[in-house]
Request: fold
Amino acid sequence: MSSITIEQVRRRAEADAKTYGYYLTPQQDLLAMFLEGLKTNEERYGYPSCPCRLATGNLEFDRDIICPCDYRDPDVAEYSACYCRLYVNKAVYESQNLPEVPERRPVEKQQRAYGTPMAKQPAEAAQEKAAPPKQQTAAKPVVKKKLWYCRQCGYVVYREDPPYVCPICKAKREMFSEIDATVEFSG
Reply:
């Protein structure tokens, strides 16, 4: 794999920001750290995962945090900046006051990166206590992908959850429906 430069990372981020009407953070020292983090993650994992989140190194688990992440558009719409504040709107860019943005990524997706098991519901925990002990095996998380389509423009995507915003027509997540399909293979 060829080495990527900070300038290439910057150009890609600037082009994406411009396309969607955003700006890169106005704080140059912070911007330099974000760009370095994106470069490091792309060299390490082969994809530019968000520099503010822990990646697993497994593309299937990290798809939602490849920068720009799935949460950027709803974060900028609601808080005027994305979670790590790399992308901001015009008002934040001009004021240079970066807002606090809470984490929007679901806990179950975060836990994959930390390798921690999901918390059990009280009913599940009681059932486990009553059942005879089983041999413990380290269960690997499984990504259950589905086909989703945008009812507004017809965009189709194969992933765990629908995107927050359609990359084609900018429709909200609610406009996505699951496609229920069965594929049979014959030898």
